[in-house]
Specification:
Elements (H helix, E strand, L loop, with lengths): L16 H30 L5 H25 L4 H5 L2 E4 L8 H11 L4 H10 L3 H17 L10 H6 L2 E4 L14
Antiparallel strand pairs: 1-2
Helix pairs in contact: 1-2, 2-4, 5-6
Length: 180
């Protein structure tokens, strides 16, 4: 699937914050699909055990698998499947594509959406509903960073020199007259 872009990448508009958040929700659902097979293999290998060490291994597995997915997709075409669906593209102005290093740093920084809330939940021993509330508050605060930037980019994009852009709509297919 090839996207025909304008000659100047900076000519592409920045998508709205709401559109990006909806795309992230879709990305979350796709993330479960990406994790399914590695977790199935892991669960078979550990026979579904639930020791503290295995729980940390599950978390590390999710972090590494999701990291491989996002870093690969961002550095390859600048888009994940959810980004293609919502016509979003990640670019680094002045560069033909994201380097693996830039994509990796962006992935690590994107954990700031939820990492402070996870740390707070662990330190304060919050129950699951309080922890969920703190995660949602953290997401809200991180999303609000877009309103501090004149180009409405999230903080992790500002720090990595990347930007999300809205791709133009695909041309509509013409209906062919049926032969009668």
């Amino acid at each position: 699937m090839s996207n025909k872009l304008p000659a100047s990448p900076s000519a592409l508009p920045t998508p709205g914050v709401g559109r990006r958040l909806i795309a992230m929700l879709y990305e979350t659902l796709l993330g479960f699909a990406v994790l399914f097979l590695p977790f199935l293999i892991f669960e078979v290998a550990v026979k579904g055990g639930h020791t503290p060490v295995l729980e940390h291994m599950r978390q590390a597995l999710a972090f590494l698998v999701l990291g491989a997915y996002f870093i690969h997709q961002w550095s390859r075409e600048g888009q994940t499947l959810a980004m293609r669906t919502w016509r979003l593209k990640l670019e680094r102005p002045g560069h033909p594509h994201l380097s693996l290093q830039t994509a990796a740093v962006r992935y690590l920084l994107s954990w700031m959406w939820i990492l402070p809330a996870l740390i707070l939940s662990a330190v304060l021993h919050l129950d699951k509903w309080q922890a969920l509330g703190s995660i949602l508050a953290g997401i809200f605060v991180w999303a609000a960073t877009a309103f501090l930037d004149p180009q409405r980019q999230f903080l992790h994009d500002k720090l990595t020199g990347t930007r999300l852009v809205q791709l133009p709509p695909l041309p509509k297919k013409k209906k062919q007259a049926s032969a009668t």
